[in-house]
Amino acid sequence: MPCNYQLILDNLMDLTHEEFVHSSSIGQKELSESEFVTSHTDTTVTVERWMHDIEAPPFWLKNMRDKFPGFSGRVDRWQIIRFEAPSTICIDVGVAKAGTGAPEGDRSQGVNGYVMNTITPETARSSHYFWSFQRNYRLDSQLITTQLRDGVHGVFGEDEAMLAAQQAAIDANPDYEFYSLNIDAGGMWVRRILERMLLAEGRDHAPAPRRGAQLVR
Ligand SMILES: [Fe+2]
User: Which of the residues 44, 51, 99, 128 has the least number of beta carbons within 10 Å of its own beta carbon?
Assistant: First the structure.
């Protein structure tokens, strides 16, 4: 990825970007309209968001129909983002038929995916980005595996284009003032953990594009 690794972490810790960057597959307005809860430990940050009784966006409607042929109707959707220091983010995502108990723990009427992301810095402006996507339904279907791999690959291509442009904008405007919004809470905790770990290693600041820089949305 042609960007600093922290931009990738920022992007994954705030999935409201799906509404704008992935509008044809997993984006929907309820992402930025819904509440979220952030928690953290010394080495982890968790951001949890639920969207209740909504229309499923195209990617999730397809997956619901793969498990429940002919499905139509509303869903409860979740995103549970978990950062594990220094640079792994596992995301528990899915939808279930609305009102069937998914928020309380019964996901039997839904489809569930896990997105695993690990990022290794290469230079201050480039990173190695490893990802995989797992599902827990129709495991015998190579067709669904191939469709999911191609679909997620396309979605991540949209992230790459946006992140490359963001890095270029940062490089072109070194004195630009960045600011944080409340939806950056998860990413801000990640940066605090990383800065503390880097200080413990004897570095005086994080190798970010700009110290403390945040995404501008
Ligand atoms: Fe994305």
Answer: 128
Is the predicted pLDDT of residue 142 greater than 90, yes or no?
yes
What's the confidence (pLDDT) of residue 184?
85
C-alpha of residue 111 to centroid of ligand 1, in Å: 19
Segment 151-165, tens digit of pLDDT: 999 999 999 999 999
Please tell me the distance between residue 215's alpha carbon and the centre of ligand 1 in angstroms: 13
Alpha carbons within 13 A on the beta-carbon side of 115:
22
What distance in angstroms lies between residue 202's CA and the mean position of ligand 1's atoms?
33
pLDDT at 24: 84
What's the fold here for domain 5-200?
Naphthalene 1,2-dioxygenase Alpha Subunit; Chain A, domain 1 (3.90.380)
pLDDT tens per residue across span 118-135: 999 999 999 999 999 999
- Give the distance (Å) from ligand 1 centre to CA of residue 27: 9
Mean pLDDT computed over every residue of the chain? 91
Q: What is the CA radius of gyration of the chain?
A: 18
pTM: 0.89
CB 78 within 8 A of CB 60: no
Name the residue ranges covered by the structural domains of the chain: 5-200
- What is the 103 CA–ligand 1 centroid distance (Å)? 23
- Tell me what the mean pLDDT of segment 13-40 comes to: 88
Instruction: Return all residues near 153 (Cβ < 8 A) that are at least 6 apart.
Output: none
First to last CA, the chain: 20
